[in-house]
Amino acid sequence: xxxxxxxxxxxxxxxxxxxxxxxxxxxxxxxxxxxxxxxxxxxxxxxxxxxxxxxxxxxxxxxxxxxxxxxxxxxxxxxxxxxxxxxxxxxxxxxxxxxxxxxxxxxxxxxxxxxxxxxxxxxxxxxxxxxxxxxxxxx
Length: 139
Known about the structure:
Layout: H1 2-8, H2 12-18, H3 32-54, E1 57-60, H4 62-70, H5 75-101, H6 103-106, E2 109-115, E3 132-138
Parallel strand pairs: 1-2
Antiparallel strand pairs: 2-3
Helix pairs in contact: 1-2, 3-5
């Protein structure tokens, strides 16, 4: 940071306004186990919320969880917050749309989210939103 502001931009006063001691560098997560723990925690929180507030269960297939691990808007670009954004965009929003259109039919059921691509092929090709699959299942 210091090199960038002082030597490249030639603007040390900007760095002085920020302060050398106020800069914190975050590294991206590379460990798959840690990523899975973060995904698990976020999914558990969402599952608990849906069960308590709407009486809806949630099931994410292994293929969809793999999408959460590898999606470019997730860990790669935005860290754990990116995964939460993906859960909102690809799980919570579609669930809410369907739930509020047919509330009584959805209560007490499980909302399943799938990605209809072979597990070993996920990440080898660009994400295809049309391969997301949503299904309500009786518990």
